[in-house]
Design brief:
Helix content of chain A: 40-55%
Strand order of the largest sheet of chain B: 1-10-12-11-13-16-14-15
Structural class of chain A: mainly alpha
Strand content of chain A: under 5%
Structural class of chain B: alpha/beta
Largest interface: A-B, 15 and 29 residues
Number of helices of chain B: 13
Radius of gyration of chain A: 10 Å
Largest sheet of chain B: 8 strands, mixed
Number of strands of chain B: 16
Oligomer: heterodimer
Radius of gyration of chain B: 23 Å
Shape of chain A: elongated
Number of strands of chain A: 0
Number of helices of chain A: 1
């Protein structure tokens, strides 16, 4: 089941930002 | 520190120069890989073995049909106002001339507009286009459409100034197109130098006559394959980040830069990730396209076959504009997706390549991007790239292992992080 979204809320974006930072 | 680990391994560690050395092995063994040629099929078989031996998963070949055109012998000699042999390269899909060649007077123009203005003069002539280089995408129209526009007016052949920002008497080939209902005439590229010379001669009122001989021939479509290998995702295996380059090339040079570099940094991305024992949540899929130079023919058939799963593609990536030192990532997608990619590119700070530009694209991935899938490509040194593009100079000599290391590191970090994020990239 595909779970891409058509948009991302600001809070979700903040979470994604932190997730990406964890790779660094 | 996954990103740092990938960068260290690629740029400073054991994987240093691996993609360059792997590429050299292939291009020295096989040479240029024209669509429909035995060289290309040999390269595909070698890559199939390489990817299996590298321990990648689901390595397989997906059959497709691609155009088969052969250059044959070709020559052009200026007979008037003086005798001079000219370097030419016939354009892909061009027809040949009769065995005795075509000998005709030349009409030199610098644009399609000028050709229209001087239409009555074109009948029975060889039209020479001396169009100035603006950028590749706008100037390539002369190579693609030059024959048709000249043939509409009764021209018997067309010779087109090579599409390149820089020339040392280097002809550049590439695909061209005929149009239904318009007579097919032979078409080839000439060097910048000869185009400018004839333009100068014409401006002094000289009568220019050329004898053109081309043995070009088209054959029925040939069997070929897109080459596929994966690191299967640990959590969402049905979802995909596609990393790619194309294996076919023109029949000039070694096809090292176009697109050996793109194909081999894409392979290297998976090798780096595998070396570090990483397995992203989504499947990382390497595709080495065939028939790209004929207009993304192999990739179109892949798209037709797999588009049913389009909602499972988080990102499609193609490197096909050089693997010199990249200045950043080109990206096409929604604003939110772009914001996410900007965060991903921050991870490349250790090599100081963090910028995200617009226009992520690639002939082979544009089918997906046009249907809404986010797409990415490398922004590279285009002046250098198009100086060698489709010319005899496309060899390992223009490639640089250290630059390939950096390009591979960027490619690996981006593909891995997007493949491993909990969520797919958003779409607008």
């Amino acid at each position: 089941k595909a779970i891409y979204r058509n948009d991302v809320s600001q809070s979700a974006f903040q979470e994604i930002k932190e997730e990406i930072a964890s790779y660094g | 520190d996954v990103a740092k680990a990938i960068i260290n391994h690629a740029v400073y560690g054991k994987a240093q120069n691996r993609s360059y050395e792997r590429l050299a092995l292939l291009v020295y063994a096989v040479g240029p890989r024209l669509s429909g040629s035995k060289n290309l099929e040999k390269a595909i078989q070698i890559m199939y073995q390489n990817l299996r031996e590298d321990g990648l998963e689901n390595v397989h070949l997906e059959p497709v049909k691609i155009p088969h055109w052969e250059r044959g012998e070709e020559s052009a000699v200026m007979l008037e106002p003086r005798i001079q042999k000219m370097a030419i390269l016939g354009l892909g899909s061009s027809i040949g001339t009769p065995p005795e060649g075509i000998t005709a007077e030349v009409l030199v123009v610098t644009s399609f507009d000028e050709l229209q203005r001087r239409a009555p003069e074109a009948r029975g002539k060889i039209v020479v286009y001396n169009q100035p280089y603006v950028n590749y995408s706008s100037t390539v129209l002369y190579r693609v459409r030059g024959a048709v526009e000249a043939a509409r007016l009764g021209a018997v052949a067309s010779l087109i100034r090579s599409v390149t920002p820089f020339s040392i008497y280097s002809p550049h080939t590439g695909i061209q197109e005929y149009q239904d209902g318009v007579p097919k005439i032979p078409t080839a590229c000439i060097t910048v130098e000869d185009a400018e010379m004839m333009s100068g001669m014409a401006s002094y009122g000289a009568r220019i006559i050329i004898q053109l001989k081309m043995g070009a021939k088209s054959y029925p479509d040939a069997d070929s394959f897109n080459t596929v290998a994966e690191i299967i995702g640990s959590k969402y295996p049905e979802q995909v980040v596609l990393v790619s380059g194309h294996l076919d090339s023109w029949d000039v040079g070694q096809g090292a830069m176009d697109d050996g570099g793109g194909a081999f940094i894409s392979w290297e991305a998976l090798s780096l990730i595998k070396d570090l024992g990483l397995r992203p949540k989504r499947t990382l899929r390497l595709v080495l396209w065939t028939g790209e130079e004929q207009g993304g023919v192999g990739a179109f058939q892949y798209y037709q076959l797999h588009k049913a799963n389009i909602s499972n593609y988080s990102l499609v990536m193609e490197s096909d504009s050089g693997t010199f030192l990249p200045s950043g990532l080109q990206f096409t997608g929604s604003d939110k997706a772009r914001a996410i990619m900007e965060e991903v590119m921050r991870l490349l700070q250790p090599i100081n390549i963090t910028q995200v530009f617009r226009n992520g694209e690639g002939t082979d991935i544009n089918y997906w991007i046009q249907d809404g899938v986010p797409g990415a490509s490398l922004l590279d040194d285009l002046y250098k790239y198009f100086s060698f593009h489709h010319s005899h100079g496309d060899t390992m000599t223009v490639m640089d292992p250290k630059e390939m290391n950096v390009a591979a590191a960027l490619w690996a970090v981006v593909s891995y992080v997007v493949a491993d994020m909990e969520e797919m990239l958003p779409r607008s």
